[in-house]
Design goal:
By secondary structure, the protein is an alpha/beta fold. The protein has 8 helices and 12 strands. The longest helix is centred in the C-terminal third of the chain and has 18 residues, at 201-218. It is globular and about 45 Å long. It comes from Mucochytrium quahogii.
């Protein structure tokens, strides 16, 4: 790739930090690498469990992140928190936005504790929620399960604050094999997830460059992001499931190497 122009990334999302790590350690990483985004999972009833931090931990993180000014935080809404926005309720989203969260991912899938039997009936109220909080970005998972939502939302051209996450794994770690073009979602800003982690980040970003790098470069499309979750867990010998900062740092190091090799460039560096 020497001399070539790499595909530009908006950032890299690390999902699932919880009470097993000190928020200050997250702040240190995103202070050094402003393209790092922390994806915080919210699901009432699971606070304090692996991947789902307590509210006290979230408040601590937000207080510390506030000192950085423009650190990237995304709220991944699961269970009843997802149900709320599907029903047009935005109080919790507005509260988190006031605490520094800029992006909100709607995890409307069964594995995330949401009844998906009649998602098409929720499109109107979800549109109302999105319009009701226009100063944040709303991320919609794109997979077969969520088709009733994203296929309809893409028809709402007036929605300028949505993006699409290509994610067939829905947090289960199934590795993605290809990178769909932004043209398949009418140029809507998009990202990619699915089994991405320290073991394959370089291979997958190289594949991404080969498959869609030219399309992003030639078209008027916002730079994509990539997101990972399952690969960042570490289970001790006694069965304790923790968020692994060492795996995060390994990914950061490997992305830095790809930047040096011009396979990718990073949009948000300040």
């Amino acid at each position: 790739m020497s001399g070539a122009v790499g595909v530009e990334l908006l950032g890299v999302g690390f999902c699932g930090p919880d009470d097993s790590v000190d928020p200050q350690d997250l702040v240190k990483i995103c202070d050094e690498k402003r393209w790092v985004e922390w994806g915080i999972l919210f699901r009432p009833g699971k606070e304090g469990c692996p991947r789902f931090p307590t509210w006290k931990w979230v408040e601590s993180l937000c207080d510390k992140v506030a000192t950085l000014g423009n650190a990237m935080l995304a709220a991944h809404l699961c269970g009843s928190r997802c149900d709320e926005v599907l029903n047009g309720e935005t109080a919790f989203v507005k509260k988190l936005a006031g605490m520094g969260f800029q992006r909100f991912q709607v995890n409307a899938t069964a594995v995330n504790g949401v009844d998906t039997s009649d998602l098409s009936s929720k499109v109107g109220t979800l549109v109302a929620a999105i319009k009701g909080v226009p100063n944040v970005e709303w991320i919609i998972q794109r997979n077969e399960e969520t088709r009733p939502i994203w296929s309809e939302l893409l028809a709402h051209k007036e929605l300028e604050n949505i993006s699409i996450l290509f994610d067939d794994s829905v947090g289960t770690g199934v590795e993605r094999k290809d990178f769909p073009s932004p043209e398949t979602v009418a140029g809507t800003p998009c990202g990619y997830a699915g089994g991405i982690g320290p073991h394959n980040i370089q291979t997958l970003l190289t594949t991404m460059q080969q498959q869609v790098g030219g399309i992003y470069l030639a078209g008027d499309y916002r730079a994509p992001w990539v997101d990972m979750e399952s690969s960042l867990r570490s289970v001790s010998n006694d069965g304790v499931d923790s968020f692994s900062l060492s795996k995060v740092r390994e990914v950061v190091s490997k992305v830095d190497q790809l930047v040096a090799e011009n396979v990718v460039t990073i949009k948000k560096t300040t």
